[in-house]
Specification:
The chain is an all-alpha fold. The protein contains 5 helices and no strands.
Length: 132
């Protein structure tokens, strides 16, 4: 993968976290009808949603490591499971976000494979030059 595709994949994943923020922030307001069902009985839910789907993808993209990309695909897979099970109240973007998160899973796994293969290529090249 060339650098432009890697940058495009990272921008897509980061913008997906911003879409998630725009989708979930109205649900956390005190005047929202879902506030009584989600936030009031369990106040840790908004914080965990904020951390898991808005902050973690951006932090993991900054780390730029194959382990971080694998964790990012796990977070995206968890979001797909949450959306399919219906733990969050239905929104108009549910079908679109499921498709976007499935695409994010594939992109983050592709970034993980790309990072790991570049490390292996560098190690092979270093071993070949050390033979001389």
């Amino acid at each position: 993968m060339n650098d432009y595709k890697i940058i495009a994949a990272k921008i897509f994943i980061a913008s997906l976290s911003l879409i998630t923020y725009g989708e979930l922030s109205p649900l956390m307001k005190a005047d929202s009808p879902t506030y009584e069902f989600i936030v009031k009985p369990m106040p840790w839910i908004p914080l965990s949603i904020l951390l898991a789907y808005i902050m973690v993808p951006i932090i993991l993209l900054i780390i730029d490591n194959y382990i971080a990309y694998t964790l990012l695909s796990g977070v995206s897979l968890l979001r797909v499971a949450i959306e399919l099970e219906g733990f969050l109240p239905p929104t108009s973007l549910r079908t679109a976000t499921i498709i976007l998160y499935i695409l994010a899973i594939f992109l983050s796994l592709t970034l993980a494979v790309e990072d790991l293969s570049s490390r292996i290529r560098g190690e092979i090249l270093r071993l070949k030059w050390s033979q001389f």
